[in-house]
Amino acid sequence: MAKVKAVLFDLDGTLLDSILVYERVFDKILRHFEIPKAKKEMVRQLMRRGKNPWKDKIPGIFLTQDMITEGKRIAKESFYEEYRNIHIMRGAVSLLSELKKILIKTAIVTSSIYGNDITGFARRVMKMVDTVVTKFDTERQKPYPDPILKACEALCVSPDACIFVGDSPLDIQAGKAAGMPVVGVTWGVSSVERLKRENPDEIAESFDHLKRIIFSHI
Q: In this prediction, what percent of the chain has a pLDDT beyond 70?
């Protein structure tokens, strides 16, 4: 890796402990339609692929268009409420603060359905970075590089002087497509083995480990 001038982060599963939020919201929708509870790994698998667990095809569940529409309505209301109490990953605030102290630029690149329209702890972490790119800022989302490149443009830093950090295969694919080193993290939706299949430059198993990786290239 070259000398790093900026670090770009995925949000859900990377900086925010939001996996359980997605699982709870999905279970709420299933209960509404009296559908048996889904296996957690199935929800996580859909998330790794960047799929909305309600909007997209779910194995063994037939969805009418009315059910999809109603499910999306419930999801939107529920996500907003759940995000009020979402937790920041332990170590995230400390890392962002240290990067700020040494004048390393930071960004969040997220495909979250709420983008900037969230509150609570999620809002706190988003205020700590220099720029935020949401799914509403580009036509194409990850695994395309567009949102990551838009963040680079906003930071006035070339992609090869950045590191992208994320927890899903789509994060790694997008970062590599943008032409920058990528660090996969294991505390989100993907195991070490799943991340290795995408050939990231590094894999971090804790925020301390991630910090060592980043600071070794500054």
A: 83
In a domain, 169, yes or no: yes
129 and 30 Cβ atoms separated by less than 8 Å: no
Query: pLDDT tens across 124-148, in order?
Result: 888 899 999 988 899 999 999 999 9
Question: Measured between alpha carbons, how far is residue 145 from residues 47, 117, 151, 159 in Å?
Answer: 18, 23, 10, 10
Give yes or no for residue 53 having a pLDDT over 90.
no
Strands 87-88 and 16-17: antiparallel
Q: How far apart are CA 199 and CA 169, in angstroms?
A: 10
- Pair of tokens at residue 84: 């009020």
Contact 164, 148 (CB under 8 A): yes
Map tokens 């990067």 to a residue. Answer: 99
- Do 12 and 116 lie in one domain? The reply is yes
Answer whether 108's CB lies under 8 Å from 88's CB. Answer: no
Containing structural domain, residue 147: 6-17+87-215
In a domain, 1, yes or no: no
Write the CA distances from 205 to 184, 186, 208, integer angstroms: 9, 5, 8
Tally of helices (H runs) and strands (E runs) in the chain: 9, 8
Same domain, 143 and 94: yes
Q: List CB contacts of 127: < 8 A, sequence separation 6 or more.
A: none
